[in-house]
Amino acid sequence: AQKITQTQPGMFVQEKEAVTLDCTYDTSDQSYGLFWYKQPSSGEMIFLIYQGSYDEQNATEGRYSLNFQKARKSANLVISASQLGDSAMYFCAMRDPSGTYKYIFGTGTRLKVLA
Amino acid sequence: NAGVTQTPKFQVLKTGQSMTLQCAQDMNHEYMSWYRQDPGMGLRLIHYSVGAGITDQGEVPNGYNVSRSTTEDFPLRLLSAAPSQTSVYFCASSYGQGVTEAFFGQGTRLTVV
């Protein structure tokens, strides 16, 4: 069965520094997608970045990058130059693009950016 | 530019009452799903649909019913509310295939007393 594991319940980072949020996944499929979402205190789910399993280059979107290591089954989110507005809950998710198309989410990491 | 519209935003129910959470999307997405979010447990899939007339159970389906009569709408019904169903509920939609992100509604905070 597919599974997403986020082992960091909470993290702190100093403003303007970079931070890495860990995500490992488990799947026997060859084709899959990995996603990161941000949930601020207001509660909405905001899509940040995605990576396809066949993409050879790591995905980047502005200050967000996804450090994809397929052999290790990890898809860590790197946030560069942290800002106070980055304080939020972050969820890693995986989608099976064939069959059920379900999205499986991890338990999340709460990030607090310190001034 | 509506996206995924979820109503209501807040609801308080008494144990045993029934209600329907509404979800509508205007992006012609084939795939729709319902999640519940509880502290420390992430988002857990309740039910999902890959198209009109097709639904299936997710990880935590007990106590919930869904139907998908149109592409746009995917209501979630609580048959007989229980305090264990106190949670935040999210509806999400996406295209049916490919590495595409899910779009989420604003969420419903449900309290069962």
Largest interface by Cβ-Cβ < 8 Å = A-B, 28 and 29 residues
Sheet-strand content of chain A, in percent, reads over 45%
Helical coverage of chain B, percent range:
under 10%
SS summary, helix count of chain B: 0
Rg of chain A, nearest Å: 14 Å
Number of helices of chain A: 0
The gist of it:
The complex is a heterodimer of chains A (115) and B (113). Chain A is mainly beta and 115 residues long. Chain A has strands at residues 3-5, 10-14, 19-21, 24-26, 33-39, 46-52, 60-61, 64-69, 74-79, 88-95, 103-105, 109-114.
Task: Tell me what you see in this structure.
The complex is a heterodimer of chains A (115) and B (113). With 115 residues, chain A is mainly β. Helix content of chain A is 0%, strand content 51%. In chain A, the strands form three sheets. In chain A, strands 2, 5, 6, 10, 11 and 12 form a six-stranded mixed sheet that branches. Chain A has a four-stranded antiparallel sheet with strand order 3-9-8-7, with no helix packed on it. In chain A, strands 1-4 form a two-stranded antiparallel ribbon. Chain A is globular, with a radius of gyration of 14 Å. The mean pLDDT of chain A is 94. Chain B is an all-beta fold and 113 residues long. In chain B, strands 2, 4, 5, 6, 9, 10 and 11 form a seven-stranded mixed sheet that branches. The mean pLDDT of chain B is 94. At the A-B interface, strand 5, strand 6, strand 10 and strand 11 of A face strand 4, strand 5, strand 9 and strand 10 of B.
